[in-house]
UniProtKB/TrEMBL annotation:
InterPro entries membership: ClpP/crotonase-like_dom_sf, Enoyl-CoA_hyd/isom_CS, Enoyl-CoA_hydra/iso, Enoyl-CoA_hydra_C
Family: Belongs to the enoyl-CoA hydratase/isomerase family.
MF (Gene Ontology): catalytic activity
Taxonomic source organism: Afipia clevelandensis ATCC 49720
The name this protein goes by in its record: Enoyl-CoA hydratase
Organism superkingdom: Bacteria
Length: 269
C-alpha cells in the first residue's frame, strides 16, 4: 500500500497532481478513489489553483479499478455486496469524473502507458489530453463481463471522436494507441515518453496568460455548449460571460497591456 495515493504539488497557480501507486500501475483502490473525490471536490472554491495537470507515476497513467485489491477484501465464499452497497461504490468512482467536469479549473491529462477502464475515464474527463507514444487506452469493462459504458465513457467518447469510433471502442474493448488517438482527435498531440511535462508547459503558459475569471468561465461555457439545446442557448451563455468579464479590472488591464504591447498582469479582480 502506498502511503500517499495522490501527490499534489502547487507551483505558480498550477496543481501538478500525480496518481501515486506505480507498483499497481496506479490502479484505483479505495484510498485513491477517496483522495480523488476529496481533491476535485475541494477545487470548486479554490481560487489559488488556476490549472490542474493530472498524470501517473511510473510507466502507466492508470490501469483502472484495482481488481486484485477489491477481491482480496472479500473473504472466500462471501456473498456479493448488496445492490445498495455496490451502487454506492460505483457512484463513488463515477463522482470523480463529474467533479472533474464541474470544477472551474481546466485539466490537462498526461497519458503514458495504460489508461484502461476507470483510468481511461479519468483521461476523457480532462479538458486536454497529451499522450506519450507508449499510451494505450481502452474501455476495459466489456472484457470483464460488464457493459462497455461506465464512468462517463459513453458520454465523453461520442462527443470527442464521433459515434462510430466510440461504438468500436465501447463494444469491443479494443485499445486505441497514441497515433490513432491523435488522428481521431482524442489527444492534442503525441510526444516521446519522458517529455509529457515539457509538452504540457506551453498549454499551461497560454492558459495562465488569460484572466482567471475568463479562463474559468470559458471552461464552464464549453461544458454547457456541448449539451446545449440550441445556438440561442450557447449565445446566451457567451453573452453573459463577456458582460461579466468586461466589468472586471482584469479586462481593463488586458486592454492596456494589448495597447502597450506587454504581458498583462492579472489580479483576479
Amino acid at each position: 500500500m502506498t502511503a500517499t495515493p495522490l501527490i499534489v504539488e502547487h507551483i505558480d497557480g498550477v496543481d501538478w497532481v500525480t496518481l501515486n501507486r506505480p507498483d499497481s500501475l496506479n490502479a484505483l483502490d479505495d484510498q485513491m478513489i477517496d483522495a480523488l473525490n476529496q481533491y476535485f471536490g475541494d477545487l470548486a472554491r479554490n481560487s489559488r489553483t488556476r490549472i490542474v495537470v493530472l498524470k501517473g507515476s511510473g510507466r502507466a497513467f492508470c490501469a483502472g479499478l484495482d481488481l486484485k485489491e477489491a477481491m482480496s477484501r472479500r473473504p472466500p465464499n462471501a456473498p456479493p455486496p448488496s445492490v445498495a452497497d455496490a451502487l454506492d461504490h460505483q457512484r463513488s468512482i463515477a463522482d470523480i469524473v463529474m467533479l472533474m467536469r464541474r470544477c472551474p479549473q481546466p485539466i490537462i491529462a498526461l497519458v503514458q502507458g495504460a489508461a484502461s477502464g476507470g483510468g481511461f475515464a479519468l483521461a476523457l474527463a480532462a479538458d486536454i489530453r497529451i499522450a506519450a507514444k507508449s499510451a494505450r487506452m481502452n474501455c476495459a469493462f466489456i472484457r470483464l463481463g460488464l457493459g462497455g459504458c461506465d464512468i462517463g465513457t459513453s458520454y465523453f467518447l461520442p462527443r470527442l471522436v464521433g459515434v462510430s469510433v466510440a461504438s468500436e471502442l465501447i463494444l469491443t474493448g479494443r485499445f486505441i494507441h497514441a497515433e490513432r488517438a491523435h488522428a481521431v482527435g482524442l489527444v492534442s498531440e503525441v510526444v516521446e515518453d519522458g517529455e509529457l511535462d515539457a509538452a504540457a508547459a506551453p498549454y499551461v503558459e497560454s492558459m495562465l496568460a488569460a484572466s482567471p475569471l475568463g479562463l474559468r468561465l470559458s471552461k464552464e461555457c464549453l461544458n454547457m455548449s456541448v449539451d446545449a439545446s440550441s445556438i440561442e442557448a450557447v449565445i446566451a451563455m457567451e453573452d453573459r460571460n463577456q458582460v461579466l468579464t468586461s466589468r472586471s479590472e482584469d479586462f481593463k488591464e488586458g486592454v492596456r497591456a494589448f495597447l502597450e504591447k506587454r504581458k498583462p498582469v492579472y489580479r483576479n479582480a
